[in-house]
Automatic annotation (TrEMBL):
The gene is ybaO. It holds the Pfam family HTH_24. The keyword Iron-sulfur does not apply. This is Lrp/AsnC family transcriptional regulator. Keywords: DNA-binding, Transcription, Transcription regulation. PROSITE patterns: HTH_ASNC_1, HTH_ASNC_2. SMART domains: HTH_ASNC (SM00344). The keyword Magnesium does not apply.
Length: 159
């Protein structure tokens, strides 16, 4: 069972296990244990404990967006008309149904949300904007910024 809002203490072996697994989730337990300097069973126990604690949420395959012809990244600030709990929930639920939205963050300050959208082209983004984004519940204002170049891309957390 995943422990919510509990800070879990990690030692140097746990952190090294996580570093290795962030680089390559397909690493075998034998390779992982050898890399971190533990025998197979203690290494396996640590991985299983971190999975049970929710530190390791899932193992995924990362795709190359450009090779899939998804080379346009757009960052979108959204401001809502209302800020009551029901309005926020309606917006957040509606965003879940738009596949092109790969990230959605609530933000502080003047804007309510920051979305990251990945599409094939500017034309595809324009269509998405007109048909889906402006139709999201209670949207007051949308401001889009196109990424020109990705300088850094990592999914690894700084542990």
């Amino acid at each position: 069972m995943q422990k919510e809002n509990v800070i879990i203490k990690l030692d140097k072996f746990d952190r090294e296990i996580l570093r290795v697994m962030q680089r390559d989730a397909t690493v075998s337990m034998a390779e992982l244990s050898q890399h971190v300097g533990l025998s197979h069973t203690p290494c396996w126990r640590r991985v299983k404990r971190m999975e049970a604690d929710g530190i390791i949420r899932q193992k995924v395959t990362l795709l190359d967006a450009k090779k899939l012809n998804l080379g346009v990244s757009v960052f979108i600030y959204v401001t809502l008309k209302n800020h009551d709990g029901d309005s926020l929930t309606k917006f957040e639920n509606a965003v879940q149904d738009i596949n092109e939205v790969v990230e959605c963050h609530t933000t502080s300050g003047e804007k309510d949300y920051l979305l990251k959208v990945i599409v094939q082209s500017i034309e595809e983004y324009e269509l998405l904007l007109k048909t889906k984004l402006t139709s999201l519940p209670l949207v007051d204002h949308i401001s889009s910024t196109f990424a020109l170049k990705q300088v850094k891309n990592t999914t690894a957390l700084p542990i």
